[in-house]
Design a protein that fits this description.
Layout: H1 2-19, E1 26-31, E2 37-41, E3 46-48, E4 51-66, E5 69-81, E6 86-97, E7 102-108, H2 122-130
Antiparallel strand pairs: 1-2, 2-4, 3-4, 4-5, 5-6, 6-7
């Protein structure tokens, strides 16, 4: 009986701890070649061997029209290889209303592939920030 109570308390404490996880700390990087504003979550930048993982946001200058409204922003996760100056997309979430966490689509990469990013793109700005 005591073990069951201990597990229940531990489960509640674990849930409460995860509920208070730190909110992203979005650092502005500037604008990409299309005029979209780019932000990096400072807490997400983590070196993992030869690569660095990072989460960043793109706030669209002009929303993309959809039947349910407009896509106003996206959140992307990628891994960066600073030695090669390449990046691999991991996941992209397109938001119709990011403040209310209303996602239009969520896409995960089927294959992790490191590529050179176009100069002035969102990912190019993030690579420059992570690899400085």
């Amino acid at each position: 009986m005591r073990n069951a109570i201990a597990f229940a308390i531990a489960g509640i404490a674990g849930f409460a701890g995860s509920a208070f996880a730190a909110a992203p700390d979005w650092q502005p990087l500037g604008e990409n070649a299309n005029g979209n504003r780019i932000f990096v979550d400072k807490a997400s930048v983590k070196a993992e061997g030869a690569t660095t993982s990072v989460t960043y946001r793109t706030v669209l200058k002009t929303p993309l029209d959809t039947p349910g409204g407009g896509i106003t922003s996206m959140r992307s996760q990628m891994r960066v290889n600073c030695k090669e100056r390449t990046a691999a997309g991991i996941e992209v979430i397109l938001f119709e209303d990011e403040a209310r966490n209303v996602a239009f689509a969520r896409n995960k990469a089927a294959k992790i592939e490191y590529l050179k990013e176009p100069p002035g793109s969102s990912a190019d700005l993030v690579i420059a920030h992570v690899c400085r």
